[in-house]
Design brief:
Layout lengths: L1 H17 L14 H9 L4 E5 L3 H9 L4 E4 L3 H4 L11 H12 L6 E5 L9 H12 L5 E7 L7 H12 L4 E6 L19 H17 L3 E5 L3 H10 L4 E4 L7 E4 L1 H4 L17 H17 L15 H17 L1
Parallel strand pairs: 1-2, 1-8, 2-3, 3-4, 4-5, 5-6, 6-7, 7-8
Helix pairs in contact: 3-5, 6-7, 7-8, 8-9
């Protein structure tokens, strides 16, 4: 007993000398891959929103989304590029860091943008490690993969990541990074039996490679339902119907933050662009018509005696000159 007390006392003394707290610091509890897995096993729908900066990340946390995806789609939806392939890796990492500065329960997952893994597996591994080290809030990378009959390389790459303990979500179906080889932004797995078969086999091979979850984009809902029932990992759908384990939407689409037509699979939950335009127009009009700033509401006061002393001082200096 005395030996135990002495050990504890020594540990406490050492912690004090080093400047460490004996008690671990308390922080906001965030979702983990294990907690997402538990939701999946309970068949509780998983919610995912994209975010592209600190503000949108804060919104997703406040809404208690299970996961935040920093997707390279932000190149088009947020930064005005014509394609997801246009954004540089450094620019993308800037946005990942911004997203990760927000605190809350949502687990952060991050795309591997085009060009970060295609040149070689070793380059891809180094870039995946770079992404994971951007913040301790980054829990997983997401990798787009083509049909397994044509894209054996990416499956090998994913296998290498998983074998090194880097968590991966495999993304199949419509893969925007391969939009040219797919012939455009089109539904996948809806033309013939062979296409459906290959898509289902690709999902199976992603699980075999070690992916802890699958993202299914723009595929018929019956195909997505079949894949979800056939696999033992969560499926996150975008344009893949209600049978997936969870859903993801691009935040600028669902909140109506930009102009233009929305994809069929998007449900718009707000019209922030219209509200912003209206609010800014009102501001411009108020300034032009001198309603803002209001002297009583928006300005700061100074004591009269101080102001009087200042004016007297100014006049005195003028007279001296």
């Amino acid at each position: 007993m005395l030996r135990s007390v002495r050990i504890v006392a020594n540990r406490s003394r050492l912690a004090f000398v080093r400047g460490y707290s004996v008690q671990p610091s308390k922080s906001l509890k965030s979702n983990t891959i294990q907690s997402i897995r538990e939701k999946y096993l309970l068949q509780s729908p998983i919610t995912v929103s994209t975010a592209h900066d600190y503000i949108t990340s804060s919104w997703a946390h406040a809404a208690n989304c299970d996961m935040i995806l920093v997707g390279d789609s932000l190149a088009m939806t947020t930064l005005g590029y014509e394609s997801t392939t246009d954004i540089s890796f450094e620019e993308f990492k800037y946005h990942v860091r911004s997203v990760c500065r927000a605190s809350g329960p949502s687990m952060v997952i991050v795309d591997m943008p085009f060009g970060t893994f295609e040149s070689s597996i070793q380059t891809g591994i180094a870039n995946a490690i770079d992404i994971m080290k951007l913040s301790n809030k980054v829990a997983s990378v997401k990798v787009e993969v083509g049909p397994h009959t044509r894209d054996r390389y990416t499956l090998r790459f994913i296998n290498e990541l998983c074998s090194r303990g880097i968590p991966v979500i495999g993304h199949c179906g419509l893969t925007p990074q391969r939009v040219h080889s797919l012939g455009g932004f089109k539904v996948q797995g809806n033309k013939n039996i062979e296409d459906i078969k290959v898509l289902c086999e690709t999902a199976a091979k992603l699980e075999e490679a070690g992916c802890w979850a699958l993202l299914l984009e723009c595929i018929p809902h019956k195909v997505a339902s079949y894949i979800t029932a056939s696999r033992s990992v969560p499926t996150i759908g975008i344009g893949a119907g209600p049978s997936c384990s969870g859903q993801v939407l691009v935040i600028s689409d669902m909140l109506g933050m930009r102009e233009g037509s929305m994809p069929r699979f998007v449900k718009q939950y707000g019209n922030m662009r219209a509200h912003a335009n209206e609010s800014l127009s009102e501001y411009v009009k108020d300034v032009q018509e001198k309603r803002f700033p209001d002297k009583e509401l928006h300005t700061f006061k100074i004591k009269e005696d101080l102001w009087k002393s200042f004016l007297e001082n100014v006049n005195k200096n003028k007279n001296n000159h």
